[in-house]
């Protein structure tokens, strides 16, 4: 890639014109992790955090964020999302793994929607748990896979 598509020949920012692109089914899967104390993770598992069911609130927050991506990320296109799903896993005593999947039939991809869903879910977990755990770490927010469009299928190698 020799040049960034969000800048014109003079270097001014611009929204990329996708009007000539074909409408195709596009999907993206993103992930991230939140590290907390084992005690905080247990409170989340037991649904005993005073602010409520942390993972369900984070799920709704992530979906809502994905739907508003164009309002948060400059120059993103507004997309008619077909679906956004958030999944949570607790792979060990101190980690919550987050995965978001988004799909759309459109002229541009949904990577930013999936990434924003993960980030917002992670921030929601942080916000709901900060009163009991001051050492929460949000990490490794990244695109795992995308399909559709001219650039084809991408799967993260590691």
Task: Quote the distance from N terminus to C terminus.
Answer: 22 Å
Q: In which range does the helix fraction lie?
A: 25-40%
Round the Cα radius of gyration to an integer and report it. Answer: 17 Å
Count of alpha and pi helical runs = 4
Backbone structural class = alpha+beta
Q: Taking strands numbered 1, 2, ... along the chain, how are they ordered across the largest sheet?
A: 2-3-1-4-5
Report the β-strand fraction as a percent range: 25-35%
Low-pLDDT segments, ≥5 res: none
What is the number of beta strands? 5
Oligomer: single chain
What's the helix-strand series?
A: EHHHEEHEE
Question: In a nutshell, what does this entry contain?
Answer:
28% of the residues lie in helices and 30% in strands.
Describe the model.
The chain is an alpha+beta fold and 158 residues long. The protein has helices spanning 38-45, 54-67, 69-72, 111-129, and strands spanning 24-35, 83-92, 95-106, 137-147, 154-155. A 5-stranded antiparallel β-sheet has the order 2-3-1-4-5, with helices on one face. A hairpin with a 6-residue loop joins β4 (137-147) and β5. It is elongated. The two termini are 22 Å apart. The model has no long low-confidence stretch (mean pLDDT 92).
């Amino acid at each position: 890639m020799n040049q960034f598509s969000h800048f014109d020949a003079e270097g001014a920012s611009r929204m990329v014109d996708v009007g000539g692109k074909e409408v195709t089914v596009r999907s993206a899967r993103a992930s991230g992790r939140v590290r907390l104390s084992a005690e905080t993770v247990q409170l989340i598992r037991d649904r005993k955090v005073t602010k409520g069911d942390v993972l369900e609130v984070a799920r709704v927050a992530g979906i809502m964020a994905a739907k508003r991506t164009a309002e948060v990320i400059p120059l993103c296109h507004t997309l008619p999302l077909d679906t956004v799903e958030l999944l949570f896993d607790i792979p060990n005593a101190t980690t919550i793994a987050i995965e978001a999947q988004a799909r759309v039939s459109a002229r541009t991809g949904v990577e930013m929607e999936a990434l924003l869903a993960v980030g917002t879910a992670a921030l929601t977990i942080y916000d709901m748990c900060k009163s009991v755990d001051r050492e929460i770490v949000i990490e490794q927010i990244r695109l795992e896979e995308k399909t559709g469009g001219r650039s084809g299928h991408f799967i993260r190698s590691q």
